[in-house]
Design goal:
By secondary structure, this protein is an alpha+beta fold. It has 2 domains: 183 residues, Glutaredoxin (3-Layer(aba) Sandwich), CATH 3.40.30.10; 81 residues. The chain is built from 5 helices and 18 strands. The strands form 3 sheets. Strands 6-5-4-2-3-8-7-9-10-11 form a 10-stranded mixed β-sheet. Strands 12, 13, 14, 17 and 18 form a 5-stranded antiparallel β-sheet that branches. A hairpin with a 4-residue loop joins strand 15 and strand 16. The longest helix is centred in the N-terminal third of the chain and has 14 residues. It is globular. The protein starts with a strand and ends with a strand. InterPro entries: Aim32/Apd1-like (IPR009737), Thioredoxin-like_sf (IPR036249).
């Protein structure tokens, strides 16, 4: 990735509008995230979420270091309703996954308790209330100081959805500014992009029914992008929408540079041949003036290897 300095007086197009005008595919664009630490912090949020958002800067430095060491993505969350933190902050620990994904909700009364959390655990630590299947969280990025597109597109989504009993939260950056509004479902780890208020209603309803909305589906943060793209290819080819209907198993590089991905589904196992190239350089984030050449994927039709 390269960062450029635009000429004086030049106003770049919004990264989300540019991405959509280029018809950039959403599938295969979810970032890899192995764990989440969500911390309730009413706004405003600065560009650096842990150091510029009214948290103690020493605490922010320590949290950033601990999350980096544990491979956990920290995110600040808030609701549209102002809340007094005197009684404590809502904090969530989550490990995204399919059958093994989990999330726990805690109430942290003293900020220093955040540094006592074990961020390396793979199993629920039992420190708070474990969310059941009907309590999935929906994070919508509204981090305007990180990218204006996130605030412009994300806030109407949050307003339209409402609080929903503590299941919907505004969030700091989750990845993929140019796909705003972006939504993450936890603990499934499913990412969506180009979400509107109406689409968000549909996503929440379908997620609670155990189904994905393929038109806005970016992939799961548990999988590498090439696996995400192969999963999407099989879902589209086989008309499979169940959350766990399609599971990418492995990726094997080919001598010609393509990748063979094995994907399991209720009808058997498919092989998907995926080709990865680089797209033309374009603006991928407004606030930083970031120009990048994102990966571009193409796939041949799935080949059935086993099953009916």
């Amino acid at each position: 990735m390269q960062t450029t300095t635009p000429p004086e007086g030049w106003t770049p197009p919004a990264c989300a509008a540019l991405s959509q005008s280029l018809q950039e595919p959403l599938c295969g664009t979810a970032p890899r995230v192995s764990g989440w630490l969500l911390i309730e912090q009413p706004g405003p949020w600065g560009r650096d979420r842990l150091r510029q958002s009214r948290l103690d800067p020493v605490l922010g430095d320590a949290l950033a270091a601990r999350c980096a060491d544990a491979g956990v993505r920290p995110a600040l969350i808030r609701t549209r309703q102002r809340r007094d933190l005197a009684a404590g902050r809502h904090v969530y620990l989550a490990r995204p996954g399919r059958a093994d994904g989990w999330a726990e909700r805690l109430l942290v009364r003293e900020d220093r308790e955040l540094l006592d959390l074990d961020l390396t655990v793979d199993a629920p630590p039992g420190l708070g209330d474990r969310l059941d299947a009907t309590e999935s969280l929906f994070l919508v990025c509204t981090h305007g100081k990180k990218d204006a597109c996130c605030a412009s597109f994300g806030r109407p989504v949050v307003t339209g959805l409402g609080h929903r009993g503590g299941r919907v939260w505004e969030s700091t950056h989750v990845g993929g500014d140019r796909f705003a509004a972006t939504m993450v479902c936890l603990p499934s780890g499913i990412y969506y992009g180009r979400v509107t208020a109406g689409v968000a209603e549909h996503i929440v309803a379908e997620h609670d029914r155990g189904r994905v909305v393929l038109e806005h589906y970016r992939g799961r943060c548990t999988d590498d992008p090439v696996l995400q793209f192969a999963e999407h290819t099989v879902r589209a080819e086989r008309s499979l929408l169940g959350l766990d209907d399609v599971i990418p198993l492995s990726a094997v590089p080919r001598q010609d540079g393509d990748t063979d991905v094995l994907v399991r589904h209720p009808g058997g196992t498919d092989r998907v041949r995926v080709r990865t190239t680089r797209a033309e350089p374009r603006l991928t984030a407004c606030s930083a003036g970031v120009v990048d050449s994102p990966d571009r994927f193409e796939a041949a039709p799935p080949v059935r290897l086993s099953g009916s």
